[in-house]
Amino acid sequence: xxxxxxxxxxxxxxxxxxxxxxxxxxxxxxxxxxxxxxxxxxxxxxxxxxxxxxxxxxxxxxxxxxxxxxxxxxxxxxxxxxxxxxxxxxxxxxxxxxxxxxxxxxxxxxxxxxxxxxxxxxxxxxxxxxxxxxxxxxxxxxxxxxxxxxxxxxxxxxxxxxxxxxxxxxxxxxxxxxxxxxxxxxxxxxxxxxxxxxxxxxxxxxxxxxxxxxxxxxxxxxxxxxxxxxxxxxxxxxxxxxxxxxxxxxxxxxxxxxxxxxxxxxxxxxxxxxxxxxxxxxxxxxxxxxxxxxxxxxxxxxxxxxxxxxxxxxxxxxxxxxxxxxxxxxxxxxxxxxxxxxxxxxxxxxxxxxxxxxxxxxxxxxxxxxxxxxxxxxxxxxxxxxxxxxxxxxxxxxxxxxxxxxxxxxxxxxxxxxxxxxxxxxxxxxxxxx
Length: 434
Ligand SMILES: CC(=O)N[C@H]1[C@@H](OP(=O)(O)OP(=O)(O)OC[C@H]2O[C@@H](n3ccc(=O)[nH]c3=O)[C@H](O)[C@@H]2O)O[C@H](CO)[C@@H](O)[C@@H]1O
Ligand SMILES: C=C(OP(=O)(O)O)C(=O)O
Known about the structure:
With 434 residues, the chain is an alpha+beta fold. Strand 11 and strand 12 (219-223) form a beta hairpin. Strands 21-22-1-23 form a four-stranded mixed beta sheet. The protein folds into two domains: 4-19 and 237-433, UDP-n-acetylglucosamine1-carboxyvinyl-transferase, Chain; 22-234, Alpha-beta prism (UDP-n-acetylglucosamine1-carboxyvinyl-transferase, Chain), CATH 3.65.10.10. Helix 6 packs parallel to helix 7 (196-207) and helix 10 (321-328) packs parallel to helix 12. The chain contains 14 helices and 23 strands. The mean pLDDT is 96. Phosphoenolpyruvate (PEP) binds next to helix 1 and helix 12. Phosphoenolpyruvate is lined by residues 22-23, 49, 97-98, 120-121, 319, 388-389, 416. The active site is at 121 (proton donor).
């Protein structure tokens, strides 16, 4: 497996354009199964998870016409249902979390679906209860095969109902929306997740002929329709990548402009980085981060130590907390990072501590960071990337550190960040894939 060799301490400069959003792409590409007509998707990120999902669809006999690396026409007019029972499907769909979202459209259109043991980041328990309970309420039954962790669903026909979700699961909501668009009658999904990924999915489905209202809220009402049609859809810029670049710029004292960020879809993300003291100039749809000598973490109005925590949208996505944490290590001041959703996502701080950061891991969910105020630089070390976002946090640490670092297991980073080494080289970074 490849590694990144990074020599840190270089101030970067230039412009960078975010890729299309990974988590939106996974939902949108799954939705092509809902129609036999052509669906054209643009701004697809060229990353491992998305390419694996496209490969799965292709194995299912969906016609995949790759116009270029970021645009694809899909047509699911002759799906091979037998493939879903194969060892190959089990193996390949287990590589990514997003493959669970094939189940909703399969149930809607073919009345049967399989969910294999899902892949994705090993960042703590990741239960599927919201998906399973929702499918059951819509009229599907399932059998669980414990020997291989496979769920098999079938239905006589899904029927609209009232769904009060167990939790606002992102992929769970997407699955249930896709299952109910062609169900008989009306489905109400309350406590729905409403991330921009889901808003985009609902918009696309409405363009295909679905009837979904409440988009952007936590209550979706879906009037079932008989059929969906082809459409074209453009994926939004990846908000997690944008947050990662803001953090990278601040930590490395770089002067970077992030172009075409889709500002109106970023929610609280810029504000959370501002709370770390990071300056940003907004110009049109671009974010310019000037080279900053020092950034100072704000306190609460009563002088209390700041806590940054994750929360379902419109709160801060958990996917940016590892980045927030690494950036705080060079700030002036202190912050408590509270990762409420996942229990194994903060363990990577061990590596930052080895590099010289001052962090107290209070428990699996909370880490207190005492900023070094740039009085000491982090030191380059050899490390391994445990998950996608921790991987990028370590990469940011390495780019800011004195000396050479080696980051192993970079498949984790490639799952979600497109050509990251080349794009960083373009900004002046000393990074090599070996
Ligand atoms: C492919 C994809 O889209 N992956 C994203 C998706 O994963 P995914 O959809 O798998 O994540 P879920 O939203 O289902 O939940 C993630 C975890 O958070 C917990 N949980 C969730 C909601 C809540 O209110 N409280 C709570 O504790 C769940 O129990 C679970 O352990 O959403 C996660 C949460 O934004 C992101 O980290 C992932 O990048
Ligand atoms: C946790 C993430 O991805 P996945 O859900 O695909 O594992 C992520 O994108 O940060």
